[in-house]
Amino acid sequence: MNYRSWAQDHTLPPMSKTIAPADAVAHSWVDSVPPAVQPYLRLMRLDRPIGSWLLFWPCVFGLALGAAVEHRRFLDHWSDLRLLGLFALGTIVMRGAGCTYNDIVDRDFDAKVARTRARPIPSGAVSVLQAWTFLAAQCFVGLLILLALNPFAIMVGALSLVLVAAYPFMKRITWWPQAWLGLTFNWGVLLGCAAQADALPLAAFVLYVSGIFWTLSYDTIYALQDIEDDALVGVKSTARLFGHRAPVWVFLFYAITLGLLAAAGLSAGFGLPFLLMLIFVGVHLFWQVSQLEVDRPSICLGLFRANREAGALMALAIIMATWSA
After folding, report:
1. What is the pLDDT of residue 260?
2. Per-domain boundaries in the chain
3. 37-324 — its CATH code?
């Protein structure tokens, strides 16, 4: 299909209300639930779990770092499992809430972009009023989870709402919405550390900034899928800003990510085993860069999804550091 021709006459092809977005996981479990429920699960992006993983790993970073602040091993106490469970559930619910809010705000843009026009709101499967109601329900569940944490963590968690509320508008006013997503998605580092240790040492902020550059990298890769459509509808992104130079910038951002990750570990008192583990992280990140082709959306999507494993390696490095310190 020629999307430039489509953009000129402003028409949309007929569309089923149950069709999954182009980047959804094929044969997802969401397809097996009752049809009336499917649009809401897709609104939460439960057919695309990669976003939940990318939101969850920074929480694990923070929880493990908080254990190190308390001079103990992470996952060596039942309270760690309790917090891990709360954050896992909170990640799913609040990622769903964020996606619902984003789709409400972006519904007009989404209707004009090939990859997103099948989402529940622009497709008509969920009305705007239904989406707002569903958003309120998810936020209520998220609030209950937040209230299960200590008072300092509750305050830290509440501050993230400013970032979440502003994110959908960033693509309209800056070429760097991926950086704002980094600020938002990695807040779990600070929240996790606050929930675990009731404090935020310097290492937590260094680790947070490392995560920002990580997100800036992988979301640039993700946005490369939409360069042409984003240009047509006027959406800004680092992918459009960098163009064919994107691999160079992604390489730079990944290098900064790795450097700051090492600095955070050293600040926390992590030793040689942690630094050795970062070698595997670096190999994985730079493998992504070596495979990146800006004109191949399928490759970009695959590399974006590969950051689930990158996050797992980072989490493993920090967790192992608490056991070897």
Report:
1. 98
2. 37-324
3. 1.10.357.140
Dihedral in degrees, nearest 10, Cα atoms 42, 100, 226, 301: -50
* Contact of 61 with 268, CB cutoff 8 Å: no
**pLDDT confidence of residue 325:** 67
Query: Distance between CA 120 and CA 175 in Å, rounded?
Result: 27
Taking the C-alpha atoms of residue 24 and residue 88, their distance in angstroms, rounded to an integer, is: 21
Residue 53 in contact with residue 311, Cβ under 8 Å?
Answer: yes
Specify the residue for token string 């559930």.
Answer: 89
* CA pair distance 27, 40, nearest whole angstrom: 17
pLDDT in tens, 270-308: 999 999 999 999 999 999 999 999 999 999 999 999 999
* Radius of gyration from C-alpha coordinates of the chain: 20
The pair of three-digit structure tokens given for residue 39, joined into one six-digit string: 């649009």
Residues (pLDDT < 50) of the chain are 1-20
